[in-house]
Amino acid sequence: MGNDIVDTPESWEVVASRTPFEGAKTAVKSDQVRMPDSSVVRRDYQVHPGSVCVLALDEEQRVLVLKQFRHPVRHRLWELPAGLLDVPGENPLHAAQRELYEEAHAKAGVWRVLADFFTSPGGSDEAVRIFLARDLAEAEGERYEVSEEEADMEIARVPLADLVRGVLAGELHNPGLVTGVLALAAALASEGGIEALRPALAPWPARPYEA
C-alpha cells in the first residue's frame, strides 16, 4: 500500500448551480453534476468556511474539554475548544489560538498539527484542522465574554486515557473530540511520538492560507 493510500483532489463538471439558502455563517448549494456515464444528477450540500479544534494537553496528560449544548442533535456534548475560520484565508493557527483563549481563557507555548478531516463529505464541504497544544498556561487579561450556547458551558480537564475509553464505549460523540483523542493516542504510541507530528504552520490544501 504505502504512498498509494492518499486522498486526491478531483472535480467533476458542474452543469448548473444555485444557492437556495444562505445563512449567517453557512449556506446550502444545489449543483447539477455530470457523472462519469454522462448522466447529470443533483447534489445538495452545506457550504462551510471551515473550522479549527484545539486538543490542549497539560503536563499530567489531561485534555481540556468543554460540555456544550448542540441543538441539531439534542445533546450536550463534551468537545474540544473549537471555532469557525471567520475570514477567508485566515491562518488556522491564529484561529485556534483565539478559540483557546475565548473558550478556555488559556494559551499554549507549543503547537503542532494533529489531524485534518472533512466532517461529513457526503453532505458538507466543511474541513477541520485539529491542533495539539502543549505548555499550557492561563491567558492574561479578563475572560472573554461568551453568549448563547457558550454561556452555559462546563470546562474540565480529563485524563486522555479516560477520553479514549469514552470514545470506544460510545459515550463521546463530537467528531473533533473523537478524531483528536484517537489521533493523539495513536501518535503517542507511534515510533516518532508527538514530536513527529506536522508543524503548526503545515500546508492545508482544503483551506489554503498565508502563514
Short description:
With 211 residues, the chain is α+β, with helices and mostly antiparallel strands. The protein has three helices and eleven strands, in the order βββββββαβββααβ.
Description:
The protein has 211 residues and is of the alpha+beta class. The protein contains three helices and eleven strands. The chain has helices at 92-104, 160-168, 175-189; strands spanning 14-22, 27-34, 40-47, 51-56, 62-70, 75-79, 82-84, 106-118, 127-138, 154-159, 198-199. The strands form three sheets. Strands 7-4-9-8-11 form a five-stranded mixed sheet. The chain has a three-stranded antiparallel sheet with strand order 1-2-3, with no helix packed on it. Helix 2 packs across helix 3 (175-189). The longest helix has 15 residues, at 175-189. The model has no long low-confidence stretch (mean pLDDT 94).
